[in-house]
C-alpha cells in the first residue's frame, strides 16, 4: 500500500451473529496483523454469507454477487490491489477499493462489500489508523492464559460456523 504510514493492515479475526433492534445482523471482527487491537463492523446477512463462504473455501453452485463482480473486473483486465476502511462518519464506516491501474481512482464502497471483494482477490485489508485509534479495542483477556483449543476456536471460528440462508447457524 502506498500510504501504509496512515493505515494499519488487518486480517479477519471472526464473524458472528449480533443482536440488534432492527432484527439482528452480523459483526465482522478485524484484527491488526502487527498488534492486538480489534475492530468490529456490523454487516448485512448476504455480505456475511459471502465472506463466510470465501473464508471456508466453499464455492456456491451459481455465482453470488461478489463472485460475479470479480469476474467482471477480471474480464476487463483489472485486479484489486487492496481495500481500506477509510472513514468513520456518524457511526458509519466507509471503504475504498484500490485497483491495480493508475488510471482508476479509488472506488467508494461499503466496508462489507469491499472486504468480500478483497477476499475474492486475496487482496490485503487496511484500516485508517485514526479509526483504529478511535474505536479499536484490545480484548480484556490475556490470550496466553486461555486453553489452546479455545484460542483455536476463536481464531478459526468460521470453520465451525456455517451461515445458511435466513441467517441460521449450525454446529
Q: Hey, roughly how much beta strand do the residues contain?
A: 25-35%
Can you count the beta strands? 9
| Rg estimate, integer Å | 16 Å
Distance between the termini: 38 Å
Major sheet: arrangement of strands: 3-2-1-7-4-5-6
Order of helices and strands: EEEHHEEEHEHHEE
Share of residues in helices: 25-40%
- Outline the low-pLDDT stretches: 144-171
Largest sheet: 7 strands, mixed
Average of per-residue pLDDT values = 82
Number of helices: 5
- Helix and strand composition category: alpha+beta
Tertiary shape: globular
Task: Write a brief structural summary.
With 171 residues, the protein is of the alpha+beta class. It has helices at 45-56, 65-75, 111-121, 129-135, 148-155; strands at 7-18, 25-32, 38-43, 80-89, 92-99, 107-109, 125-128, 162-163, 169-170.
Q: What report would you give on this structure?
A:
- The chain is of the alpha+beta class and 171 residues long.
- Helices cover 29% and strands 32% of the residues.
- The chain is built from five helices and nine strands.
- It has a seven-stranded mixed beta sheet with strand order 3-2-1-7-4-5-6. The chain has a two-stranded antiparallel sheet with strand order 8-9.
- β2 (25-32) and β3 (38-43) form a beta hairpin.
- It is globular, with a radius of gyration of 16 Å.
List the topology elements:
Blueprint: E1 7-18, E2 25-32, E3 38-43, H1 45-56, H2 65-75, E4 80-89, E5 92-99, E6 107-109, H3 111-121, E7 125-128, H4 129-135, H5 148-155, E8 162-163, E9 169-170
Parallel strand pairs: 4-7
Antiparallel strand pairs: 1-2, 1-7, 2-3, 4-5, 5-6, 8-9
Amino acid at each position: 500500500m502506498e500510504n501504509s504510514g496512515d493505515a494499519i493492515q488487518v486480517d479477519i479475526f471472526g464473524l458472528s451473529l449480533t443482536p440488534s433492534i432492527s432484527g439482528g445482523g452480523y459483526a465482522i471482527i478485524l484484527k491488526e496483523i502487527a498488534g492486538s487491537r480489534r475492530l468490529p463492523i456490523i454487516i448485512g446477512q448476504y455480505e456475511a454469507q459471502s465472506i463466510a463462504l470465501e473464508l471456508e473455501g466453499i464455492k456456491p453452485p451459481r455465482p453470488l454477487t461478489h463472485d460475479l463482480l470479480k469476474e467482471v473486473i477480471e474480464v476487463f483486465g483489472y485486479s484489486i490491489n487492496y481495500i481500506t476502511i477509510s472513514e468513520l462518519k456518524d457511526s458509519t464506516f466507509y471503504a475504498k477499493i484500490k485497483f491495480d491501474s493508475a488510471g482508476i481512482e479509488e472506488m467508494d464502497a461499503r466496508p462489507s462489500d469491499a472486504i468480500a471483494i478483497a477476499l475474492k482477490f486475496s487482496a490485503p485489508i487496511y484500516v485508517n489508523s485514526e479509526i483504529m485509534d478511535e474505536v479499536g479495542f484490545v480484548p480484556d483477556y490475556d490470550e496466553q492464559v486461555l486453553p489452546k483449543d479455545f484460542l483455536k476456536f476463536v481464531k478459526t471460528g468460521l470453520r465451525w460456523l456455517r451461515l445458511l440462508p435466513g441467517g441460521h447457524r449450525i454446529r
